[in-house]
Every structure is written in C-alpha cells, then in structure tokens.
C-alpha cells in the first residue's frame, strides 16, 4: 500500500502538473519555432503575445459574465478563446506591419529583428499593464476539479489523493487538437507546403511563384493563434499576472533550443523536457521517500535539490547543458 501511496503522490505532484505545464510550454515553443524557421529571427516578444492573448480572453470573459453567458462546468474563458485568437492575430499582424516588415523588406540581419522584438516585448508588456493592471487574477470560474483528492483517498483507502483539475484536462485536450491541426496544415495543405518551401530556400521558392507576403501573413496567423491559446491555458491553469509571462520567455526559448532550433517536433518535446526538469528538480522528496524507506533511513531534510524560488534557473541550467553537450538540440533544426 505504501508503494501505491508513493505512486499516487508522484502522479499528483509531478506527472500530471508536468504534463499540463509541458503542453503550455510546447505551444509557446512551437510558435517561436515557426516564426524562427520561416521568418529567420528569434521573437522575444512571443511571451508577451501570449500575455496579450490571455488578457483579451479575460476581457471577453468578463463581458460574457456581465451578460450572463457561461458554459458551466467549463470555465467561461474557453468560450472567449475564438474571439481572443482573432484579436491576437490582428495584433501580431499590426506589429509585423509597423515594425518587422520594414527591416524584413530591407533585408536586415536577424539580430536586428531580434533587438526589435525585445523592444516590442517591453512595449506590449507596458500596454497590457496599462489596460488590465498588474494584479494577479484568478480566471477559472468553472468546476475546479474533475477528480478530487479526497474521493481517491476514500475509494482506495490511501493516505495520498489524486486531484485532476479541469484546467489540466482542457490544456492537454486543446494542445493535442491544436498541435494536430498545425502539423496537418504544414504537411497536407498547399499553403503549409509553400511555407516549408519558403523556409528551406527563400530564393528558390520565390522563383517558383510563392507569394512571400502570404507566407508571412500565414506565419503570424499561426504564431498568434498558438500564443493566444498557450497564454490563456497557462493563465487558466495557474493564474493571470502580466509579469509572469515576462518570466516565461526563458523556459519557452529553452524548450525550443533544447528540442532543436527550427524543429516543431523538437519544440514540443523540449517543452516537456523543461517542464518536468523544473518540477522534478524543485520537488521536495521527503514525503515520497517516506513511503519507500524505513523510518530509520528517512532523511531529516526536505530532499529538495533547489527551492521553487530558483525554478527559472532550472531552464537556464538545462539550456546550458544542452548547448555544451549537443548544441543542435535533441533534433537538428529542420521544418518538419
């Protein structure tokens, strides 16, 4: 029975939260990877695009709540997602039109576009705080748990319970559907194939009659959609606070680089590598070991490698290790 308690505790505090967090990082890293692969620059503003999408979802959710529209037991913010996706895409296209397009048309170096994206990152963060404020907001108004810990405890007579949140199930389900759609679009549609051709050889694709402006537009549409969904799901699962998304830039980029710069599959795998690394390294194992070891061998410390205060440092540590051992990442960068 002690082993079952240990497995239940592991699933409750590591496996399921890591799966949910990994989905959120994977969506963010996938958006960064597609922009990098097609437009050839690292978009440091992507975390703030996620925050912008989440903010729009919250504003639309508040409107729906005011007029009495809900889909209980699901959170109302899921109903707001289609509108917020469209508005986030429009915001990304405006940013591209007024900022990135000038440097792209002048064939500027990638580092110039990277610096521009950092400026856009701070601008977007300030705009978001101006609109919605810097406060922490809980945006989950639906049923919080699909499975409650006390139910599992009573059902199997365990000391540990297994709680599965609605937000975690929604995150996993929506991520699977969205990633499937993106890969189908890139591999099966004519527009997706033109994007792949453009990323492989820009000059040859132009000679083949591919419209570069259309490729750029579709790239931002996909990036905006992924950013909005990832940001909204992250806010739904944790809580929404603008400054949090500024800190998400490192884990998202670490996910993309660890998986393999420019490889969408690698970005998804990298998201889970970073998510589980953060959780495993910052988890206190004393309670877990208490079910596996006799009392006389149980350590007095929390058996925690790093405090949760240093969670963001884990992404940096994993990133450095991967760059030293295998700079190309898990998968060598290539668009699907």
Which short descriptors sum up this protein?
2 strands, 72% helix, ABC transporter involved in vitamin B12 uptake, BtuC, single chain, mainly alpha, 336 residues
Describe it for me?
It contains 14 helices and two strands. The protein has a two-stranded antiparallel ribbon. The chain has a single domain, classed as ABC transporter involved in vitamin B12 uptake, BtuC, CATH 1.10.3470. The chain is globular. It is an all-alpha fold.
Write down the CATH class.
Answer: Mainly Alpha
Strand content: under 5%
Q: What class would the helix/strand composition place it in?
A: mainly alpha
Between the first and last Cα atoms, what is the distance in angstroms? 45 Å
Radius of gyration: 21 Å
In terms of per-residue confidence, which ranges show pLDDT below 50 for 5 or more consecutive residues? none
Q: Which fold does the CATH topology refer to? A: ABC transporter involved in vitamin B12 uptake, BtuC
Task: Report the total helices.
Answer: 14
Number of domains: 1
CATH A-level architecture? Orthogonal Bundle
If strands are numbered along the chain, what order do they take across the biggest sheet? Answer: 1-2
Which sequence of SSEs, written as H and E, runs from N to C? HHHHEHEHHHHHHHHH
**Major beta-sheet overview:** 2 strands, antiparallel
On the 0 to 100 scale, the average pLDDT is 90
Assign an overall shape. globular
Percentage of residues in helical conformation:
over 70%
Number of E-type strands: 2
Could you give a short description of this structure?
It contains 14 helices and 2 strands; from the N terminus they run ααααβαβααααααααα. By secondary structure, the protein is mainly alpha-helical. The protein has a single domain (2-247), classed as ABC transporter involved in vitamin B12 uptake, BtuC (Orthogonal Bundle), CATH 1.10.3470.
């Amino acid at each position: 029975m002690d082993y079952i308690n240990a497995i239940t505790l592991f699933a409750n505090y590591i496996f399921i939260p890591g799966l949910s967090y990994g989905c959120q990082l994977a969506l963010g890293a996938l958006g960064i990877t597609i922009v990098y692969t097609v437009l050839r620059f690292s978009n440091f503003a992507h975390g703030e695009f996620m925050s912008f999408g989440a903010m729009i979802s919250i504003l639309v959710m508040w409107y729906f709540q005011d007029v009495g529209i809900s889909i209980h037991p699901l959170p109302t913010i899921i109903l707001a997602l289609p509108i917020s996706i469209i508005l986030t895409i429009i915001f990304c296209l405006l940013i591209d039109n007024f900022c990135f397009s000038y440097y792209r048309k002048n064939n500027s170096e990638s580092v110039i576009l990277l610096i521009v994206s950092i400026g856009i990152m701070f601008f977007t963060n300030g705009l978001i705080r101006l609109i919605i404020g810097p406060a922490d907001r809980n945006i989950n108004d639906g049923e919080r748990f699909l499975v409650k810990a006390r139910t599992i405890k009573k059902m199997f007579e365990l000391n540990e319970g297994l709680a599965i949140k609605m937000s975690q199930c929604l995150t996993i389900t929506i991520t699977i559907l969205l990633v499937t759609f993106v890969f189908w679009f890139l591999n099966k549609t004519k527009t997706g194939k033109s994007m792949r051709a453009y990323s492989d050889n820009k000059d040859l694709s132009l000679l083949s009659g591919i419209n570069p402006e259309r490729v750029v537009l579709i790239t931002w549409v996909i990036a905006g959609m992924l950013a909005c969904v990832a940001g909204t799901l992250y806010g739904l699962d944790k809580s929404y606070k603008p400054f949090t998304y500024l800190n998400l830039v490192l884990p998202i980029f670490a996910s993309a680089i660890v998986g393999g710069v420019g490889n969408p599959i690698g970005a998804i795998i990298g998201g889970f590598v970073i998510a589980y690394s953060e959780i495993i390294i910052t988890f206190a194992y004393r309670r877990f070991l208490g079910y596996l070891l006799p009392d006389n061998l149980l350590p007095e410390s929390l058996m925690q490698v790093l405090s949760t205060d240093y969670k963001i440092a884990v992404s940096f540590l994993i990133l450095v290790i991967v760059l030293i051992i295998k700079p190309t990442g898990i998968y060598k960068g290539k668009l699907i």
